[in-house]
Amino acid sequence: MKAQIVYDKPCRIRFRCGSDAFTKELERSIHKLVMSNPWAVACEAHYENGGILIRYKEGHRAEAVELVRKLRGSDLAPVSDNQYDTEEIDRTFKSDLAKLVMQRYIRKAILPAPIGAALIVYSGLKYIAKGVSALFDGKLTVEVLDGASISACLIQKNYNTAGTVMFLLSVSGLLEDYTRARTRAALTDSLAIKADQVWLAGKDADTLIPMSQLQVDDCIRVRTGSVIPVDGQITEGEAYINEASMTGEPLAVMKSAGASVFAGTVVEEGSVVIKVRKLSSDTKISKIIELIDNSENLKAGVQSKAERLADSIVPYSFLAFGLTLLFTRNVTKAVSVLMVDYSCAIKLSTPIAVISAIKEAADDDVTVKGGKYLEEYALADSIVFDKTGTLTNAEPVLEKVIALGDYSEAETLKIAACLEEHFPHSVARAIVKGAADRDIDHAEEHAEVQYIVAHGISTTLHGKRAIIGSRHFVCEDEGIEITDEQQAEIDEKSGACSVVYLAVGDKLTGALCISDPPRPEAEEAVKQLKEAGITNIVMLTGDSAKAAEITAQKLGISDFRAQVLPEDKHRYVQQLKEHGHRVIMVGDGINDAPALAAANVSVAMSDASDIAKETADITVRGADLTQLASIRQLSEKLMHRINSNYRFILLFNSVLLLSGAFGLLQPSASALLHNASTMAICAKSMTPLEDKKRKKKNK
């Protein structure tokens, strides 16, 4: 690329390539290419003049020059880069703010007074029109108050005050837009559907291929517990599909051949082959971000309350204006009162604080789907944990295989791995890995499996019915007899391990003992949650009472429930809520989805099943349970900030209002102090709630 060096200082060089060198779409491609080099510190590309600014580490000027000179526009492909989007938003905000300030003061400096006044009147008409429109809609909102205060200034020919009010309102609006835009960019990457591989359906066998190789009209197989990664149409099979991310409806719907399915929805039960209609990996992003921005249901209760409070205060501002005018007969004093209201700061600072907290959580690898979930997390007094895969190690280990009946240990493990290999639960992964570690080949020799959520798996193997799952499923649901001698042998050999039972041809064939040690940080996480004020910590598990008791003792949990079914977990959470508790539910499996949906706020860890992540209100993208306590601290600090903002707004604006009524402040001073305080409280609401340096030190 032909480039002229127009600025060249140590560690900073600017190139000018010409206005036709590259398009706006390729700005981020250049940015990404430059930043992929270890010597690059920062890069800006501007298509208008073909400008490329590179900041580099000392001693690497030659590399920067060589890279730009070898650059070819035809070699660059458009890319989506979240970091670049954030930097672009920052630049746009700084540019818009600078334009606003320069426009304000240059006009005052160079324009004759009559022209300046005319421009202020013209600008004021827009605010007045908004206020009149709100009145015609039967609403007495902040827009009416803004329009009235500007009108009062213009009627008094106090153009300087009117200009100041409009300038400060513009800056406040710019700040709010900037915060929202930056938060959207920060969340976008974390909410993407990250399906790296898919099963390409074939006539004889399915093939695992990278997502990047998938084409429109290909057919893929999606099984129980997996997110559908594309838009398409079912060609084979039937399944219950949870479409909550699309429709908001929590109950799964049965879909079969011919039905349309969408990216981001989840197969709760069944297996389907889908013909790809659209490679739409952004569906989930757009839906969740739309919810965060717009859904009243996802606003924090305190945020909705603030908005209602802000609008309800407006009539009292007009009443104070009228009373001041009545008793003082002084228009200037009355206008000074009108310049002050509680509404702007309350209405702006609360959503900015909430959305900034969501962004801060995203920076710490925690995805929060709405402000109301942070509020619920702060108010919760109970937390309910699923044991397996949540409190315990994310990778359980197969400790023993107990052979019973006509099959050897190797044959028992081979059958179990064959049945479990398609399912995402951590216990299934342990069995499959155990077979692989023992060099046992478990190629499919059975018919299509049926997964009974949270109970087990059934299929046909060499003409015989084969089932694997919990004791409840195998013995009580399927009627397989387990003799006292067999159970005694299993109890003796399994110790504190969880036990998975296998039956073939209506006879118990064996048992698999799964060791699931607690996560290294689990005990510390429980301790921190107690210190954070969560008084009721409960562990629910489908394991035996013995295994549950040992785990609970290790972690310092006094309340636990063993051999719990999914409906029991859901029922227990409901009972806690009925007794007045606010409940956090933390789970990872398909079987936890009902309880996650029932809790006041639900959390899924990074290695949770797709359906658990889809159902959860908060997703922790790391594997550290102590982040649960960090979320608590963040949410409590958010509520403290909002409440302290309220107190400051009420106190400061009350002082301004009284000062205006007694003639201590002119309208221009009232407007300046009121709007400056609004901007200050909004700016404060954008600052981090947690000390990043101290947090890193603690880690």
Automatic annotation (TrEMBL):
<dbReference type="GO" id="GO:0005886">
    <property type="term" value="C:plasma membrane"/>
</dbReference>
<protein>
    <recommendedName>
        <fullName>Cd(2+)-exporting ATPase</fullName>
        <ecNumber>7.2.2.21</ecNumber>
    </recommendedName>
</protein>
<keyword id="KW-1278">Translocase</keyword>
<keyword id="KW-0547">Nucleotide-binding</keyword>
<dbReference type="InterPro" id="IPR023299">
    <property type="entry name" value="ATPase_P-typ_cyto_dom_N"/>
</dbReference>
<dbReference type="InterPro" id="IPR023214">
    <property type="entry name" value="HAD_sf"/>
</dbReference>
<dbReference type="InterPro" id="IPR018303">
    <property type="entry name" value="ATPase_P-typ_P_site"/>
</dbReference>
<keyword id="KW-0104">Cadmium</keyword>
<keyword id="KW-0472">Membrane</keyword>
<keyword id="KW-1003">Cell membrane</keyword>
<dbReference type="InterPro" id="IPR051014">
    <property type="entry name" value="Cation_Transport_ATPase_IB"/>
</dbReference>
<keyword id="KW-0479">Metal-binding</keyword>
<dbReference type="InterPro" id="IPR027256">
    <property type="entry name" value="P-typ_ATPase_IB"/>
</dbReference>
<dbReference type="InterPro" id="IPR001757">
    <property type="entry name" value="P_typ_ATPase"/>
</dbReference>
<dbReference type="InterPro" id="IPR036412">
    <property type="entry name" value="HAD-like_sf"/>
</dbReference>
<dbReference type="GO" id="GO:0008551">
    <property type="term" value="F:P-type cadmium transporter activity"/>
</dbReference>
<dbReference type="InterPro" id="IPR008250">
    <property type="entry name" value="ATPase_P-typ_transduc_dom_A_sf"/>
</dbReference>
<dbReference type="Pfam" id="PF00702">
    <property type="entry name" value="Hydrolase"/>
</dbReference>
<dbReference type="GO" id="GO:0046872">
    <property type="term" value="F:metal ion binding"/>
</dbReference>
<keyword id="KW-0812">Transmembrane</keyword>
<keyword id="KW-1133">Transmembrane helix</keyword>
<dbReference type="InterPro" id="IPR059000">
    <property type="entry name" value="ATPase_P-type_domA"/>
</dbReference>
<dbReference type="GO" id="GO:0016887">
    <property type="term" value="F:ATP hydrolysis activity"/>
</dbReference>
<dbReference type="GO" id="GO:0005524">
    <property type="term" value="F:ATP binding"/>
</dbReference>
<feature type="domain" description="P-type ATPase A">
    <location>
        <begin position="202"/>
        <end position="292"/>
    </location>
</feature>
<dbReference type="Pfam" id="PF00122">
    <property type="entry name" value="E1-E2_ATPase"/>
</dbReference>
<comment type="similarity">
    <text>Belongs to the cation transport ATPase (P-type) (TC 3.A.3) family. Type IB subfamily.</text>
</comment>
<dbReference type="InterPro" id="IPR044492">
    <property type="entry name" value="P_typ_ATPase_HD_dom"/>
</dbReference>
<keyword id="KW-0067">ATP-binding</keyword>
